[in-house]
Design brief:
Length: 144
């Protein structure tokens, strides 16, 4: 039987966002520096990179077609670009941040559907994520 997911709380808007302006793909975890590889993907549309790599479809990570759809939507609305990808993480840089709390909360809910770990195992509330989206040009996602 499928268990119904309980959505996280909206929560209070934080006075200071808890964002981290570091790339998660190349971050030093527990004293271990990851190897960083550079790949050339034969495409003129960077949003198709997850499809070319057959990225996703394991654990809570969406299938590649969902990545492509989300990346295209965020590219068109926020000027997002993929700047890092690892076996369980993705980093994006955006040109435009949400301008209002309402827009940021809507985007936070959208990102939660795409990657619930950023709230469930990360910030804990939609308001905290929304505040980060308004404060930083870097978006990080991870899937366990």
């Amino acid at each position: 039987m499928l268990r119904e997911r309980t959505l996280p709380p909206v929560g209070e808007w934080p006075t200071e966002p808890e964002y981290n302006d570091e790339l998660s793909v190349a971050r030093d975890f527990k004293g271990v520096r990851p190897k960083v590889y550079i790949a050339l993907i034969p495409t003129d549309d960077w949003t198709t990179v997850p499809a070319h790599l057959r990225y996703g479809g394991w654990n809570a990570c969406p299938k590649s077609e969902y990545h492509v759809a989300a990346l295209r939507s965020w590219r068109d609305r926020y000027g997002a670009e993929l700047i890092g990808l690892s076996f369980d993480r993705m980093d994006l840089r955006v040109a435009t941040r949400p301008q209002t709390r309402s827009q940021a909360l809507e985007l936070a809910r959208e990102q939660y559907v795409y990657c619930n770990d950023i709230v469930d195992q990360g910030l804990g509330t939609f308001s905290k994520l929304a505040a980060c989206l308004m404060a930083s040009n870097l978006w990080g996602f991870w899937w366990d």
